[in-house]
Amino acid sequence: MDCQYLPLSATGQFSTLFLDYIAQKDSLAPFYNHFPTPSAFRQQLAEKTFDASKRETLVDALERQYAGIANKPDFSILRQPNTFTVTTGHQLNIFTGPLYIVYKLITTIKLARKLAQEYPDYQFVPVYWMATEDHDFAEINHFSLFGNQYTWQTEQRGAVGRMNPQELKALFAQIPEKLHLFEKAYLSHDTLADAVRFYVNELFGNEGLVCLDADDPALKRKFLPVMKDDLLNQTASGLVEQQTEKLEALGYKTVITARAVNLFYLDDQVRERIERADDGSYRVLHTKLRFTESELLTELTDHPERFSPNVVLRPLYQETILPNLAYIGGPSEVPYWLQLKPVFDHYQTTFPLLMPRSFALYVPKVSARRVAKLGLTPEQLFQDDQALKREFVDHHTRHSLSFDNENKAVNKGLDALLHKAMMVDPTLEKAVLAETKRFANAVVRLEKKMRRAEERNQEVGLRQLQAVKDELFPNGGLQERSENYLTFALRDSSFLKKLLDTFDPFDYRMHICLEA
Fold first, then answer.
1. What is the helix (H) or strand (E) element at residue 355, kind and residue range?
2. How far apart are CA 98 and CA 129, in angstroms?
3. φ and ψ at 332, to 5 degrees?
4. What stretches of 177-269 adopt beta strand conformation (E)?
5. pLDDT score of 44
6. Cβ 508 vs Cβ 384: under 8 Å
7. Is the distance from CB of 162 to CB of 215 less than 8 angstroms?
8. What is the signed CA dihedral for 352, 261, 264, 140, rounded to 10 degrees?
9. d(CA 45, CA 53)
10. Cα torsion for 204, 210, 212, 218, to the nearest 10°?
């Protein structure tokens, strides 16, 4: 596989905040700990502390969650004080969801490998934080395969990880391809969390990837002090608001907004926000649940699993229960983590290195041949369709499609005409200028007609160009945000291995991967 590279800033696809972070802009330095370079991990290793009791709790939770799974990873190394994790997280999109989710997992695996080479005295475990507590079902219930979209319909509510995936049996009847791994995963497990853990372990377990479901009473108990403080004092809200104001003062658009209480109440079929009333009591939105302060604190102590951190507290929860060094995130995640550093500082928790995931455009063999035949560069692939079309026509035409030289000669003559007319009668200026304007408009119209004629002459090449763009940028967007990995893996069983061999976690550029 031949890879070419393009700076993310040249793709026109990413926010200024994300690009400035990658560029290590000085004004953003106060918003994170260390920028993720191989050498920065040495200092992160020195700063990260994680006690033995938390390691035991973590290993016990993983052993419970992997019960019944064959060929599971060796969790015992997480008990050792020289073992650390690198983590990515995402929702439980069906059939792995868009390509970039697989890219996140592979980046995390490759980072653990790189660090093991760089720091042989330590062990590194790649972790997939499964967002089992998320309740935005509409974001995970569909996937695209060979141009067709398939959607899971259900009446189930609440945290998606607790949903029963048996209903996906109806979806398999619609999909012409045989997806045995996913059939076994979804139809042999009672929860979506268990199903996802099963197939991710089948795909990446041999690479050492560990799936963690943080919807666990023992793990939540380690986070009790923070959850209690959030309920009573709403500390995180003010800290995030101040950090957000600083980022916005620098001209950046921010991603998240903290709430007074940054916890959901979580139970079967329910994941709803907790709100504090003016009288000091608490209510769970869209339910009849009401608590006094003492009742809610008792509920928290007795059932910590019923409390779920939102986007503000989830990163802190992650760093509380994992011996983690780095978080691998996408172009929306990295910016919102920058809003959270004061929260980590307040709770005296080491802020992880924020690593952008790998970005890629995968060009299958047929399209790769077309790209070569058309002579397209990586920069051109990411151009706007109209701009690329114009450039293509200009490059391949045998004719001049502009009247630049002629315009210069004519304009010189018109200037002389204007001068002569004004010598006779100054009031003729407006009439001459109006004629000049009409002539200029006529030239523009003629140039457009010439260009359309030349486009007809190059119709075959332009059709091929558009076909390449449509395949590589479905619906005009990035391939990795819509295509599923199965689109490529069903045609090439070595697809995932090729990505594992290709990605460099410290290369923050767009990979244009052309299949040989």
1. strand 353-356
2. 17
3. -95, -30
4. 210-213, 263-267
5. 97
6. no
7. yes
8. -60
9. 19
10. 150
Report whether 242 contacts 253 (CB < 8 A): no
| Nearest-angstrom CA–CA distance, 384 and 168 | 38
**CA pseudo-torsion sign 183, 189, 191, 192:** negative
Answer whether residue 340 shows pLDDT above 90.
yes
Distance CA 208, CA 204 (A): 7
pTM: 0.89
Task: Enter the DSSP assignment of 161.
Answer: G
Q: What is the pLDDT of residues 382-400, one digit of tens each?
A: 998 888 888 776 767 665 6
Q: Which residues pair with 130 in a beta bridge?
A: 90, 213
SS (H, E, C) 67-110: CCCCCCCCHHHHHCCCEEEEEEEECCCHHHCEHHHHHHHHHHHH
Reply yes or no on whether the pLDDT at 186 is more than 90.
Answer: yes
pLDDT at 449 over 90: no
Pair of tokens at residue 67: 């019960």
Q: CA-to-CA distance for 328 and 334, rounded, in angstroms?
A: 8
pLDDT(402) > 80: no
Q: In which residue are the tokens 């991603």 written?
A: 255
CA distances from 439 to 408, 410, 442 (A): 13, 10, 5
Q: What is the C-alpha to C-alpha distance for residues 369 and 365, in angstroms, rounded to an integer? A: 6
Contact between 118 and 45 (Cβ < 8 Å): no
Instruction: Give the C-alpha separation, 504 to 106, whole Å.
Output: 10
Q: Give the angle 386-389-390 at the CA atoms, nearest 5°.
A: 85
In this structure, the strands spanning 353-356 and 210-213 are unpaired
Q: Which amino acid is at 76?
A: S
pLDDT digits (tens, 9 = 90+) for 47-71: 999 999 999 999 999 999 999 898 8
Mean pLDDT of the chain: 92
Which secondary-structure segment (H or E) carries 274?
strand 270-276
Q: Is the dihedral of CA 256, 348, 320, 77 positive or negative?
A: positive
Q: Are 370 and 488 in contact (CB under 8 A)?
A: no
User: Which two structure tokens, joined as six digits, stand for 511?
Assistant: 């990979």
CA 249/CA 445 separation, integer angstroms: 46
CA atoms within 13 A on the CB side of 360: 31
367 in Cβ contact with 471 (< 8 Å):
yes
User: Which phi and psi (to 5°) does residue 357 adopt?
Assistant: -70, 170
User: Please, are residues 141 and 94 in contact by the beta-carbon 8 Å criterion?
Assistant: yes
